[in-house]
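Field log, afternoon session.

UNIT: design team B
ACTIVITY: writing a sequence onto a fixed backbone
BACKBONE:
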């Protein structure tokens, strides 16, 4: 059972944006598509598969274009991911890949023992750069430095923590560079996750003027009369999402 170089079975902890979560045991060489769609039941709520993170915080992100990859040690390493302990987190089109890379870097920064400078300082600098990008202050030079620092960490860190910490950044830079460019060049988060780059808007053709959003806005950022389309003052908006949550007509979007 398994493949020529990866024998036997592998247990994956399947989680994230997936219909059925849990521990699944499959033969080595089973495709990612089989695990996500047949065993996991696919991505729920009408959303589409975007990526899967394997190997825990130090693993890499597998994009939708690699959905038919056979899950074994060699194939995962070849595309910048790794098997690790078997974590398999599914992400859909509502996920921001820059934010995901930042999320995993926060873990490795906390876990670094601090013995070697590349890992102790390097992971923190990586995190600071990702925070700068998600806050809308990133530059094209930051992207170049980000990649350069990732390879420096891989080559100079003493242990596997520092050597593999850049994997989420490198894999997202490689497969989802368009999202990084959107954050840096267009000052926009395509997934609408990064608050600093996201604004809420009321669609005039859908708004019924029920005033429910205005009555629930903690910042008094919404104005409008009864039965007249309302408007959000983006300067006053604190981006809490209360208006979108309360709207019964799907008239509020974030972009």
């Amino acid at each position: 059972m398994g493949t020529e170089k990866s024998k036997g079975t592998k247990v994956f902890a399947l989680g994230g944006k997936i219909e059925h979560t849990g521990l699944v045991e499959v033969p080595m060489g089973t495709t990612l598509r089989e695990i996500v769609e047949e065993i996991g039941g696919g991505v729920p709520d009408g959303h589409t598969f975007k990526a899967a993170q394997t190997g825990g915080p130090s693993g890499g992100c597998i994009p939708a274009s690699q959905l038919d990859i056979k899950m074994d040690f060699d194939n995962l390493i070849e595309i910048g991911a790794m098997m690790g302990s078997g974590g398999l987190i599914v992400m859909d089109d509502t996920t921001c890949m820059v934010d995901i890379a930042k999320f995993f870097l926060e873990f490795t920064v906390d876990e670094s023992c601090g013995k070697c400078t590349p890992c102790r300082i390097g992971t923190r600098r990586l995190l600071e750069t990702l925070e700068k990008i998600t806050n809308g202050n990133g530059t094209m030079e930051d992207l170049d430095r980000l990649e350069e620092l990732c390879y420096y960490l891989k080559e100079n860190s003493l242990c596997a923590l520092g050597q593999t910490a850049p994997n989420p950044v490198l894999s997202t830079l490689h497969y989802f560079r368009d999202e990084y460019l959107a954050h840096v060049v267009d000052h926009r988060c395509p997934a609408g996750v990064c608050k600093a780059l996201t604004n809420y808007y009321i669609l005039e053709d859908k708004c019924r003027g029920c005033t429910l959003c205005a009555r629930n806005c903690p910042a008094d950022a919404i104005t409008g009369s009864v039965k007249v389309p309302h408007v959000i003052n983006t300067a006053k908006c604190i981006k809490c999402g209360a208006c979108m949550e309360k709207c019964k007509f799907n008239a509020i979007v974030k972009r």
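LOG NOTE: The chain has ten helices and nine strands.
NEXT ACTIVITY: expression trials, pending approval
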